Amino acid sequence: MEPRGLGFQVLSGFEIDDRAIGPTPARWNDVDPHRTAEWDVLMLLLAHVVGAPFGWSGQQEGRLVNNIVPSPGHETEQTGASSTVLLEPHTEDAFHPGRCHFLLLGGMRNHDRIGTTISSVREVELEPAEFVELASATVPILPDASYETNPAAGVPTAVPGANALALPTLWVGEDGLCLRYDPAYTPLGTAPERYRRAYARLSDELARHARTISLDAGEVLMIDNDVIVHGRVPFTPRYDGTDRWLKRINVRVPGRHRPPAEDFEDGYGEDVVDPSGVHPIYSVRSASR
Ligand SMILES: [Fe+2]
To answer: How many angstroms separate the alpha carbon of residue 80 from the centre of ligand 1?
Structure first.
């Protein structure tokens, strides 16, 4: 079931009873878990087919199945709780070496057919010199505002801290070009002009090849997080129980290759919650406790 080629796949045909799941909550922690337990289990089963689902201790209380809903007060953030701004294309949890290999987004409700945008790095066209620039470890990526540990929560143009480690945007993985990209949390102002030009070219190319998928209730979008960047178009939230509602699961594939230098990153202290015990960062940390 692993997505191949461009790095994404939409599974459809699951049925969701719009009334039974209850109104879209105003915040992720207002979800009544009993109403959506069936769907959570289905998403976890799908995740286990691909790899090992995991959560983050600092995000949605470490839950394996996250709820993505527009939330009052978060409208303009660069997080899943936003609404009125474009959620810029990004690699999920790009700041962390333990970020997922696959991201599963499950549609619970989307009456307004609000679009999720995806772009594949496998479609971009760059000059060799631009590739060389973007493959160099030049700028860090900082934690996003959905994490409690973010030193500048809510401020997308955060300044790098002392432990910020520069990392490559592009690398060649086992079966082709891969990326690690989150412009909203990348302090590009510290980079040389030639790097910024190459980064802008990559952004333009990703925009040029963007697809929009309006994830309907009962559809699951599987994204290869090393190949695809994802975002969301702006929309006006209603906050009346009918807003767009997604489920999200992070999945790791044990043994999958990433640049060896990532082993030296500390992930800004953000811990993984991994009930399967296969996550290397979890294993290291639990062994040292
Ligand atoms: Fe995301």
So the answer is: 6
